User: Fold this.
Amino acid sequence: MQQFTIKDNTIKSYNDNTWTKYLEIPESIKAIDYGAFTDCPNIVNVILPKSLEVIGSRAFENCRNLKTVVIPDGVKRIDSMAFKNCVSLDNISIPASVNVVGEEAFWNCRNLLSASVQAKQINDNAFSNCKFLAHLELSYDLEQMKNTSFENCPNLRKIDIVRNGKSYSFDLKDKKQFTIGSFYKFKKNIIETLDECDFQDDKNVIGQSEYSDNIMLRKVVIPRNITSIGSMAFEGCTNLEELVLPNSLENIGTDAFKGCEKLKEVYIPDRIKKLETGVFSGCKAIESISIPYDMTVIYNSAFYNCSSLKKVTIRKGAKSFDFDFQLSTLKDQSDNHQQGLTFTNEDLVKFKSMIDIKAANEISGVQVHKEAALDQVKQCQDNSANTEKLDEITARLDEIEKKYDTLLKKYNLLCRIVSMNRVEEYVSFYQLTESELKKIAVMEETLNELGEM
Assistant:
């Protein structure tokens, strides 16, 4: 005869002298308490009531022969270690009513082959060490999955994302296709790489920071219904190599693709009228970009530190650039429209091997006639400073600034104080050492030398 200790519709403990294999929980029960069925080696099959809401911590821990358990719709919580070490359990289905699957809830269920988890949150190590788990089904409404939820599941090969009764598959073994956006919002999980991500959603906006810091992404194809990408939406996606933007896109927010270090090429759709600050900054692998005909302004640092950029194609209509390109390798800028452009980037004169720069009114303070070609640009630059010498001077100055940053600031201040005949007061106030004064003197000589070049 099965014997339960019950209080307030909660099973507190269990004692079965008959060693029955089949356990049926009474229909009125709402909760199974901490450790109520721990270490019951006889139990093979458990039938849980529809009234059940909570499966407590360690409720069925170490039930080593438990093979089948059906969790009814209505259960809200599966607490930590609830089914830990249930080594004979071969499949589990967790309904959408469950809000949280607790830490180590199914830890070391090593013969678990498949799991359907429709819960909203899966905590650390919930399914860790399930070494034969091969097929996992998750809900599209999954809100949070912790870093180690499926740690050490070496045979996991397929994940299905269920949405509105439809299943979208992702084969981990081949790592070739994944067609639902929700799963790869998670920053760290069992998936190491995704070769392609294709959004399939009915919304028209990608929100702020929605996919930021996702190191799994390699390719992003934005669907045609998307009109806006929010600030920092893909910032820090360091493995993103290919980006396809739709013609429907009208706005890309600040820092949207900042730090996507492996992104190689960008084609800006025609409806984009402006590029915000830092939108592609730090994209060190970008080699070419194409700017649309209706572009009116590119804001500060839009392409800052894009150190591999070799070609910029400015399509008809671009009008203003505000400190956007800070590079040293730009080789080709082409513009096919008839009106003049204004480049105000201080670093533009540092670019080497430029060809086909046309329709520019001003390059870093150097006046260039409309539709000036490369030889004309060089002529203007030669009249103000030799480009190669300028590069050499800039590099040496940068090196000095890094090495003597503090002293350089003191030196600049000292120059002003010298002009006011207050040197002794300055040296006394800042307590400069003899060594510092010598370094300042060396710096002064170096700066004078550079100034004479």
